[in-house]
Write a structure and sequence with these properties.
Layout (H helix, E strand, L loop, with lengths): L3 E2 L5 E2 L9 E7 L8 H15 L2 E6 L4 H8 L3 H13 L2 E7 L7 H7 L10 E7 L6 H13 L3 E2 L4 E3 L2 H4 L9 H27 L8
Parallel strand pairs: 3-4, 3-5, 5-6, 6-7, 6-8
Antiparallel strand pairs: 1-2
Helix pairs in contact: 1-7, 2-3
The protein binds flavin mononucleotide (FMN).
């Protein structure tokens, strides 16, 4: 592909912005026995793999290693969890709504790290009853803003999710697949842009 001239006269390589895959951590919101989260997160990971350009890690508060990291009594497990959060360029949180917010194990996972979240985008796949988990997502936006992470606008919300995933498969996938494709395109844009920005100027230097 030929380079195209920039307004300043220099040349810009018009090849795709990022060749390296985006490291994305898919974060489970529910740690409940018999949770629907496995189904919704499985669907989400399949959409990420279909989109391409991502390398997926899974952070599940019900996983023993992650749970040890959250617990905080084991410094090595906490360091490993923080390193996994740090390694990600982007996050997709898959969360149900519990009592108009998001589940406590997800909050504990988020609170296990701090600088690791900074200047990175977060997309949301939510589910629940009539609200589709959107009230949980609005609360998560506040929490991630405090951590200097960027909540992206486009997500996927499943109202009456148990019915939609009747036998473990999404009954009418078309709308949700389209929403997921948009979510991931925007997440990829933010992740590439912010990865470059962090490399250019570490976020810690953005102080008065
Ligand atoms: C403790 C609890 C509180 C809930 N509160 C809400 C709620 O406020 N709004 C809603 O739409 N659904 C609510 N639900 C329904 C859940 O969002 C729904 O059952 C979801 O599938 C649970 O996710 P999980 O199975 O992955 O844990 C609640 C479920 C539980 C267990």
């Amino acid at each position: 592909m030929n380079p195209s001239p920039s307004p300043a006269g220099a040349t810009i390589d018009a090849a795709p912005i990022d060749v390296a895959p985006i490291d994305v951590a898919v974060i489970y919101g529910s740690a409940r026995e018999g949770r629907l989260c496995d189904t919704v997160a499985g669907w989400t990971i399949a959409r990420i793999e279909a989109a391409g350009g991502f390398a997926v890690d899974v952070l599940d508060p019900a996983d023993a290693d992650v749970a040890r990291g959250i617990d905080g009594k084991d410094p090595a497990a906490r360091a490993t969890l923080r390193a996994r959060i740090a390694r990600a360029d982007a996050y997709v949180v898959v969360s149900p709504e519990y009592n108009h917010s998001f589940p406590a194990p997800l909050k504990a996972l988020i609170d296990s790290a701090k600088q690791e979240w900074e200047a990175k985008p977060v997309a949301f796949v939510s589910y629940g009853g009539v609200s589709g988990g959107l009230r949980a997502v609005e609360h998560l936006r506040h929490v991630f803003a405090e951590l200097h992470a960027v909540g992206t606008r486009d997500g996927v919300a499943f109202a009456n999710a148990a019915g939609q995933f009747g036998d473990g498969r999404l009954r009418n996938p078309e709308g949700a697949e389209k929403a997921a494709a948009t979510m991931l395109a925007r997440l990829s844009w933010w992740a590439s842009a912010l990865r470059r920005a962090r490399e250019f100027t570490p976020y810690a230097k953005a102080v008065a």
